[in-house]
Amino acid sequence: MNILMVNFPAEGHVNPTLGIVKAFADRGDNVHYITTEKFKERLEGVGAIVHLHSDLLRKASIDPFTASGLNTFINIHIQTSLDILEITKKLSETTNFDFVIYDKFGAGELVRDYLHIPSVSSSASFLMPEKEFNHMLGPDSFQPDENAEQLLDQMKAEYGVLPKNMLQFMNNSGEINIVYTSRYFQPDSNLFGEEYVFIGPSFPQRKTTNHFSLEALKDHKVLYISMGTVLDQVEPFFNTCIDAFSDFEGKVVIAAGEKADFSKIKQPPENFIISPYVPQLDVLNLSDVIITHGGMNSVNEAIHYNVPLVVIPHDKDQPMVAQRLTELGAGFRLSKDHIDAHALKDAVNEVLSNSTYKEAIQKINDSFQECGGPEKAIKVIDSYLKNAAAGN
């Protein structure tokens, strides 16, 4: 089969798809994946044929709590969708795609409408009931500005498609919806019917080039700190971590991210390793505790390696993830507005000394293992395509 995959170019959206890409590629399907340069190596490593568009998100500084920040975000979505539609147009001239898989974020439904082929959506985070999603944002939350209106006119003229509203860029759906978690971990899972297929997360070996040495972590207690890849102004928080854990009996690894200004981070003690990039799966495999913003990707990976969590949610799905971890007893939640060295130290000591956190994480991990993984997704998709072809 020829499969087209379209995604939002962020770690937490691309990484969850690696397992399903590998499963399709391993059985001989051609998986054409439209993404950015940042993800090319790891996607090719699991067998995808990669097609690149420019990475507008990576260069942007976005404050989601301001009208101008939301406008910037929507403009990036629209321009990126135009780039993806152009690549799709060129690919479709030589390749007949059997179906398209796309993320809830991004250009997915636009590509489906342009190609008129069966569609599968995938959700990298928890599902949110439609009512709750609309109540939180509302279809009129984002009104396109003049630049966005011009881009939308261009989209209609060149590709004959338009989004239903601006919220579509954050809530694409398909005839089948793959969810990279378990029904046990998903809040209010009874609200989601059989068209939602919970396959759990998967973690195929990533082929990436990095110069991070894991040897320094072996035979030590390891505290891993990662606030994701998209937060700005993280330097004060990292300085608080340095104050809190300068006497930590073990190694402290901080994944600072590529946006961090290292000149604003104080000189750390010798037990610290601070790096723009950290091979997260490898480090989690050696970690005893993680401090995280609560992004679904990092949380799933920590659970996979049975690492107890201190969660400091900021925005997007993070408060929802933190709430669910707290409900299940698998994480300790701190408010981002009340962070100091004392609070951080107490939280880390709590999850390290209280075995109930690890027991709760093991329950979630067990539910992941029972989901069926990418193989279950392929089985469901094959059945759906067969029925679609038969006109059912």
In short:
By secondary structure, the chain is of the alpha/beta class. The protein folds into two domains: 2-200 and 371-389, Glycogen Phosphorylase B (Rossmann fold, 3-Layer(aba) Sandwich), CATH 3.40.50.2000; 215-369, Glycogen Phosphorylase B (Rossmann fold, 3-Layer(aba) Sandwich). It has 15 helices and 13 strands.
Q: What do these coordinates show?
A:
The model has no long low-confidence stretch (mean pLDDT 92). The chain contains 15 helices and 13 strands. The protein has two domains: 2-200 and 371-389, 3-Layer(aba) Sandwich (Rossmann fold); 215-369, Rossmann fold (3-Layer(aba) Sandwich), CATH 3.40.50. The longest helix has 26 residues, at 67-92. The chain has 392 residues and is an alpha/beta fold. The strands form two sheets. Strands 3-2-1-4-5-6-7 form a seven-stranded parallel sheet, with helices on both faces. The chain has helices at 11-14, 18-26, 40-45, 56-59, 67-92, 108-115, 130-136, 146-159, 235-245, 280-284, 296-304, 318-327, 341-353, 356-369, 373-389; strands spanning 2-6, 30-35, 49-52, 99-103, 119-123, 176-179, 196-198, 222-226, 251-255, 272-275, 289-292, 309-311, 331-333. It starts with a strand and ends with a helix. Helix content is 40%, strand content 14%. The protein is globular, with a radius of gyration of 21 Å.
